[in-house]
């Protein structure tokens, strides 16, 4: 996986020990790291059946929307003083170095999907942990 070089906590208990700011940064980094590979996948798999191609584009759009949503939440957290302003622009510049380039051509579709699923699960877990920290009234 092209994101294997990213340092991410293994397991929920380790992720819960990471400060909110770092966890938010990690979420943004993972989402940004998938922007180019998903676009590359969509461009190079035009031969897929229409429903599969449509699903791939839908997933790509959802990742973009999720990243935009996390960025908005981050801005709100910064304005409320929950986290500092040190996250501005960090995820984009750091993830830019995680280009998939030729890896996309060499990675099988099943490997690509496996990696995406793995990272999607991480993002989902990290978002749940972050939500519980920010809104403890949800009794997580």
TrEMBL record:
SUPFAM superfamilies: 4-helical cytokines (SSF47266). Keywords: Hormone, Secreted. One of its GO terms (molecular function) is hormone activity. GO terms for biological process: positive regulation of receptor signaling pathway via JAK-STAT; response to nutrient levels. GO terms for cellular component: extracellular space. The keyword rRNA-binding does not apply. This is PRL protein.
